[in-house]
Amino acid sequence: MAGQKVKLSFYGGVGSVTGANFLLEDDATKVLVDCGLIQGGKRAQALNTASFVYTPADIDFLIVTHAHMDHIGRIGKLVREGFKGIIYSTPATKDLAGPMLDDAVRIMRADSMRTKRPMMYETEDVEAAFSRWQTVEYHNKTAVGSFDVYFKDAGHILGSAIAEVTHRTTGKKIVFTGDLGNSPTPLLNDTEVVTDADYLVIESVYGNRVHQERESRKQKLAEVIKRVIGRGGVLIIPVFSLEKTQVLLKELNDLIEDDVVPSVPVFFDSPLGIRLTEIYGRYTHLFNKKVQDEIKAGDDIFDFPKLKMTLRKQDSEIIAHHDGPKIIVASSGMSEGGRITEHEKRYLPNKNNALLLIGYQVAGSAGRQLQDGLKQVVIDETDVPVNAEIITVSGYSSHKDSNGLLDFVSHTAGVVKKVFVVMGEPKASLFFVQKVRDNLEVDARMPNENETVVL
Description:
Elements: E1 7-12, E2 21-25, E3 30-33, H1 44-49, E4 61-63, H2 69-72, H3 75-80, E5 86-89, H4 91-115, H5 123-131, E6 133-135, E7 141-144, E8 147-153, E9 161-167, E10 173-176, E11 199-203, H6 217-230, E12 234-238, H7 244-257, E13 266-269, H8 271-280, H9 289-296, E14 307-309, H10 313-318, E15 326-330, H11 340-347, E16 354-357, H12 366-371, E17 376-379, E18 382-385, E19 389-392, H13 402-410, E20 418-422, H14 426-440, E21 444-445, E22 451-454
Parallel strand pairs: 3-4, 4-5, 5-6, 10-11, 11-20, 12-15, 12-16, 13-14, 13-15, 16-19, 20-21
Antiparallel strand pairs: 1-2, 1-22, 2-3, 7-8, 8-9, 9-10, 17-18
Helix pairs in contact: 4-8, 13-14
């Protein structure tokens, strides 16, 4: 019968944490899952601008699991190269993706003016994508050609979804985890369980690591603040504008309003982060019950005394003129572009200051070099001596660790035919492959880039 052969191809997110791009198809329908930016390292630019292996005009549907750039960052390029299908995501993901992609265009435009490189896509390509972008709430089944898609809450960032995609003719259920949240989290509900996957495509960012600091991260944050402020220093925190920023603001709110740490000026220096935080404020019904109760009791969880939001560039430049101890929260999270770079160039040479890393640092990024202890790094083509204290608190990860991922797989271990481990550095993915085999006796493997398998 036509349409019965189901194929899955891995066109991104293999052997790398970033660049999610998977194609599920039968003879009648082609469904792309995520179309993300490849981040970190010198090869990223070339890989992002290279033509897609498939023909975008042939794709019927695009399913977006969540709004991080490594899952949405090439959607504009997909449209520019011919995609005219329908895009599906949760409502929150669509709302968050707007500012994210607008900011991507702004960054590309500035880069193009400086380097004369052509832009990967323009504003009109993003607008065209949103003209065909539809939303689906959690737990509502939607037909996408020969398949049905059903979103569960991944608990990773606001609106993040596990996409359960069922082939209507054969009944095969292929589950794409997107990124799975490090539950329980300060803001969101726990990751929902999947019990009936025939095939599972699972992330493995922390496939070989366990988050030892999750329970004590707020305490460690307080200790760092008190130590740096106590010596009169400046604490700079590079953040990803989406989720990390909102979680950090919530925890700073708790620490300052409860008098756990001194109240000093806190500069939230991220126009994108400010816009995204406003969107979070419109989706409080997706927060966990504890946070919803705090909001109902009158707490503005993203605001506290001496918090200053700097939307305009001139406001950002004035931060340097504020003498004395202070905290600067700015993007980007890997110190690759964004306003954080100006603060790093200014404050990293001083031993009284500190840089706090709370997000994953991709190999090759400036953030990874700082994390690895380099005493001189290149930031925005400037050699910067590093005398400031460099601190990593891994408990702020919004990804499940190795044990959490294994627990997720365990719920469907009795029925799953194969687990494809993706979205991780090779050592993390391969470690988790072996962990699944050894602990659950489930067939697991790390696919090759551009590999196609028949399910």
